[in-house]
Amino acid sequence: MSSVGIRVLGIDPGLTRCGVGVVEGSAGRPMSLVHVGVVRTPADLDVARRLLLLSEGIEEAIATHRPEAVAIERVFAQHNVRTVMGTAQASGVAMAIAARHGLGVHLHTPSEVKAAVTGNGRADKAQVGQMVTRILRLAEAPKPADAADALAIAICHVWRGGAQQRLAAALARSGR
Amino acid sequence: MSSVGIRVLGIDPGLTRCGVGVVEGSAGRPMSLVHVGVVRTPADLDVARRLLLLSEGIEEAIATHRPEAVAIERVFAQHNVRTVMGTAQASGVAMAIAARHGLGVHLHTPSEVKAAVTGNGRADKAQVGQMVTRILRLAEAPKPADAADALAIAICHVWRGGAQQRLAAALARSGR
User: Fold this and answer.
1) In terms of CB atoms within 10 Å, which of A92, B57, B77, B141 comes out highest?
2) Residues annotated in a binding site of B
3) Which residue stretches of chain A are H helix?
4) For chain B, domain boundaries
5) Chain A CA closest to residue B98
6) What is the Cα–Cα distance from A83 to A77, expressed in whole angstroms?
7) Domain A6-174 sits in which CATH superfamily?
8) What is the pLDDT of residue A2?
């Protein structure tokens, strides 16, 4: 673990655009942007090859930025039935890669992510983008929205999960 | 490509039980069983680790049995909403692995598989198991049903797709 906190890779899963964002920080301290990007795959390619391209993009993000944990948006079956299968397949690929790298995988719902970064579980994409920009002290909001969403997921994980996990690990080490 | 036809890995995707079956044959010639099994993952493990175990099982089947193509049951969002996410994630992992090995991935719907194997797109699991047993000249039906289904998917692919693909490839090679 880095001395400045935990480094988290956030993933907003999708076949057409998969947001990938890496932040570093800890609850109560300033958080910093490490990386933000989007893995795009061509819609005219077959799904298997698109998933392969996606897996290569995620592998590259892990190899380059060496996160300590991976946070992924939880996909629900009841929303967006037309795109949900591709999103679920993309999230499955992302989870398997993270597990193969020995990284803990943590799922956060869209409303948990929105509530964590904006204080409102029903915030819209613009509000999420604004708060991500402010939290990471960026000059402007990351584009497209999938990139900002990936950072929001990573920030949510640092605040919701990372701090507790560090505490639990420290307590476990100290034998308490 | 083997001299006795095409070798196809059929996958019936699932998180709890993923059927894995390998057959070899060609349309119009007897088909033979190469391998049948089920990759099981414990329900009390987190989804990411379950997907990792599944990916290891599929990698092993590919490494051991060297299929020339992979056929996977197409998952629909509208069925079994409670389990469809896990099934979609499992199929995504399977597809990405097959693509990484340079194998063509072919999706067949459940009714295409049933129609190919039994002549009836609405056949039940017992009928599918019986026909798989007969087609592969087995002493008894493979158990559990996921294993028989994986073989049915592979058989379907040999009959529906494999023969045409070989012909197309041969024609392409001969420059016609």
Assistant:
1) A92
2) 12, 73, 146
3) 47-65, 81-100, 110-118, 125-135, 145-157, 163-174
4) 6-174
5) A48
6) 10
7) Ribonuclease H-like superfamily/Ribonuclease H (3.30.420.10)
8) 46
